[in-house]
Amino acid sequence: MRSTVAQPTTVASQRATGAFALIDSLRRHGVKHIFGYPGGAILPIYDELYLAEERGEIEHFLVRHEQGASHAADAYSRATGKVGVCFGTSGPGATNLVTGIATAQMDSIPMVVITGQVGRASIGTDAFQETDIFGITLPVVKHSYVVRDPRDMARIVAEAFYIARTGRPAPVLIDVPKDVGLEEFDYVPVDPGAVNLEGYKPTVEGSARQVEAALQLIKSAKQPLLYVGGGAISSGAHSEVKAVAEAFQIPVTTTLMGKGAFDEKHPLAVGMLGMHGTAYANYAISECDLLIAVGARFDDRVTGKLDEFARYAKVIHIDIDPAEVGKNRQPDVPIVGDVRHVLKEMLRQMGALNGQIETEATQPWRDRVDAWKAKYPLVAPSYPDCISPQEVVVALDKAAPNAYFTTDVGQHQMWAAQFLKNGPRQWISSAGLGTMGFGMPAAIGVQVALPDETVICIAGDASILMNIQELGTLAQYKIKAKTVVLNNGWQGMVRQWQQNFYGQRYSSSNMETGMPDFVMLAEAFGVKGILVKERGELEGAIAEMLAHDGPVFMDVRVKQDENCYPMVKPGCSTDQMLGLPDSEDSDS
Fold it and tell me: Is pTM beyond 0.85 here?
């Protein structure tokens, strides 16, 4: 990727180190918060960071593991739309970031990841704590750099931020050899956005002709359905999605990444689709005659058996990444462009129709969708002798309706996706990679970004142990994010699959032996702990948690063998679901 840079002529050069150029460039790009962990190769950068913190320019949050840094930076971006930034040193410090980088890449989250590296003369010699992090991360970044000359630092930072946030967002890696950070040179800043990357010109405006073709399909459809993914969140298109849906009275389903792009309390909402989506969303997908995919990628957890997904439907696919359009399902009308810009053009063309939008022909379709909603509602079960995990999620939603929720991965994640009604950017979860241990460091990132908001992590007893050490970060900085563990003593989703598909052979999925006393563990870190065993304790415990001005860790003991339904059978179409009231396979 060759580049030319328009250098500002009004800024005089100054003698500075590569480390100063990096920190100053981050400051110029609006970076206020960094998550990281120091080490030998990145010490020159941390030394400059120390001085920047003293000047009140940037605040650094010391995590207890580099994976926590990458997840915190990722969630910081998800909650704000800004580029998240994290630091790690060379060798194991850099490799510890990889899971978080891959998580962000799969979910199209913009991050700039800074790693320390051994000195330039030592690269390739298997020096102490040397790894080729540039090569290791090539499959999971949008672009990457090794800074060979400190004079390139400002340009590289400007390019990294531009690449990370434009087009389809994604992480960008900058690897900085130790001696580059120490070397002095004549530093000239580069303004944010002052880059010209030859060959990198993302298509933002969709083709007006293709939008017109899409409108013709919409107007002629009898059973249309909007299928909205994370691209609508990235582009901030929730208002435009709502306007299109209401104008044509089209039901709307969202992916796990698309939660919040459309108000799930709206009469046209049919909730999440896919493996653990609502029954009515999955039936609507199976019966629609037009599927309008908006910033979604037709991934396997959504489609089930791909050749039977929306089998009666023509397809309109809107996405900023041309590689996604037609990758899994060939659309009848492909539109490459930023989702918000494309929908704005659609609304502009709709305005030219002078109110000639007919919705009566699709009323039977909406009635049919409403009938599915009535027949297969999502209901949190209540048991006489134990708490159901679903009722914990419902109670949290009721007590904190405007909270930002992060999750780990597993059954609790799917129950949260089913029962929470989030606004835009208020649902923060690892979707594509399914990364256990994401939730707590993600909550740290969101709370740092939005200190006045309520932030709640919903986790499982297995997932939470993946990054439990971040209790130390919560305690050190008095970050008031709350963590609620739905504790069933199992790797819950693994146990559910073993029950349904592996003859109830529960191999290595029970977590009771060796489980810590979570309340004592939290309090050992200096975090308030709460244990809930009885339903009568739940409401008061949630109120106590939310009232506490600091971090809280709440361990809620829930029904051990509860399964997450509906569930699309692996390898089957979306209308073949386990756990429905009239399903032959229902065993809830």
Answer: yes
